[in-house]
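hey all, quick one before standup. I had two proteins in the batch that finished overnight and I want to keep them in one place so we stop losing track of which output belongs to which input. First protein below, input sequence then structure tokens straight from the run.
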Amino acid sequence: MVEDRITDGRRIAELLASELDGRRDDELERIAVTDADRDVEPTVEGARAYTIVRDGERFARVFVHPDRAHVELEAGQEAGLEAARERDLRVRPKATTPPRTIVFVESGAAVKRATAVVQAASRAAGAGDRQ
């Protein structure tokens, strides 16, 4: 059986939102997807698709590109960076004030790994990791 690889940024972001909202285990109980732009059009720079909140506070934002999505972590960044590297996801710090960590989700198959990164960052944020 041959499966198509999902590499459409908007579809990847939708799958990630479903995974974050649909699972009710561990840290994901604290996570919600909000402010979704249902008409978002992917751009090369990345267009904001939705916000991820943790316990009612903005925690991350998801952006869509034509061929991928990316999660911009605002809390739990060190844990997110480490978790992404452990799961072979492309990741990099973003030199802004305050700093962010960007995790690239380049296929539908990477969504579960990206969900695990969000969980790790959320746990760290709960432990006071605001780097």
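OK second protein, same deal, sequence then tokens:
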Amino acid sequence: MLISDLAGAAGVKTSTVRFYERKGILASPQRTTSGYREYDDADVDRLRFLKRGQELGFTLAELRAMTSFSGTAGPLSGEISALGTAKLAEIDERIADLARVRGALAGLLEAQCIEPDVPCPIIQALAQPRSSLSV
């Protein structure tokens, strides 16, 4: 199949396919005598894997590491689980950070800017040194 067919089957743009090829995450395909790239179903699967992995928050480096384990049995499957567990912990940490930021912003918004002659409490709080905000 041609690059446009591959991209369509995997739900990505052709520029994404070329990007993955430049990064070495997707192998450069064979070319026809006229110079067109030729892909197969395994390339569709690989592209879907990469896109879904990125949607779950994995970096391209992490996905490359995972694909280096594919096709192997035994202890390496534990390494894939370890990568997934580490990613889950990272996501939990980001959620906790966002919850802290949300709490701080909600607290700031409780102090509304109503009085025209009084400095706005939100602006005053944001202008304070970082240590005085509870983020």
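Flagging for whoever picks this up: The two ends are 52 Å apart (CA to CA). The chain has a mean pLDDT of 85.
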